[in-house]
Amino acid sequence: MNPLRAVLLLVLLIFLGLLMRSPRDPRRALSYLRFVVLVFATLLVLAPFAWLVAAVFKDKSVFNDYVFFPPPTAWSSHTINLNNFRRLFGGDDTVQGKVFFWQYVINSLFFASAGTVLQLFFCSLSGYALAKYEFYGKRALMTFMLSSMMIPGVLLFAPVYQMMVKLQLVDTYHGMILPGIVGVYGIFLFRQAVLAVPNEMVDAGRIDGCSEFEIYLRLVMPLVRPMSAAFCLITFLGSWNSFFGPSIFLQTQEKLTLPVILNLYIGVYANEYGVFLAGTLLAIIPPAILFFALEKEFVSGLTSGAVKG
User: Fold this and answer.
1) Does the structural domain 92-303 have CATH classification 1.10.3720.10?
2) What is the pTM of this model?
3) pLDDT along the chain (309 residues), means of 10
4) How far is residue 299's CA from residue 303's CA, in Å, rounded to a whole number?
């Protein structure tokens, strides 16, 4: 019998046994069934990650022989080794010289981190202004900003690229970061969060002699920390996974980011998928670390304002 069928049959027999033991009170059987469903759902979610980890350590000679790791009896230096990582870190010969994989990692970290910090500052500052200040044309400005969100971003690449050419910012990180340091989505995200800050607290800060920037930095921002964490995580992931922008604005290979170089690796390592998957596994680690570091704040930021009270 197939092992999977045997496991399913065993689960069904245990469920029926619990149900027959107390037919008038099926809560224990239903709790068991709920637990089994959650376990199977967890295994389904984790299965691709387990396959990825197994793929990067398998030798290319046995890459297609096993779905996951080979059986322990078949483990040896010819089936399980670090050849994929050795090949990945061996470096690529380019016009500028040999470029190592860590250079692409550093490029992505700089691009994503710098973009996230700048967007956090400017979007939160703009959101604070829209939430706490009244000025002429505010409603028209907000209407225009909301309307601009209906324009697909890909349509703006041509005029933005032409602008960067005139400013001589093509093939630089400035040319990629500057057009996106202020986003309508981030501004309205922070506007909604700052609206929950009492006006009395802002007025109290002014009475105590705080400048407007000090009120924003010392009073408002600590109160919207969950939203800031959620925004940082979303923005970092968007920049880290960005492919279209870097592939257009960057022309020197030593300046490329991970998504672009991993796409190139598909052709370079056409017969060595383990090398490509090793780079993919390493590219997952920084966003995963950031997510686990901001997990609590991220969940709080997503649910803030969901309950009135």
Assistant:
1) yes
2) 0.81
3) 74 78 75 85 90 88 81 82 86 74 91 92 91 86 86 83 87 87 88 87 86 88 87 90 87 87 78 83 89 75 49
4) 6
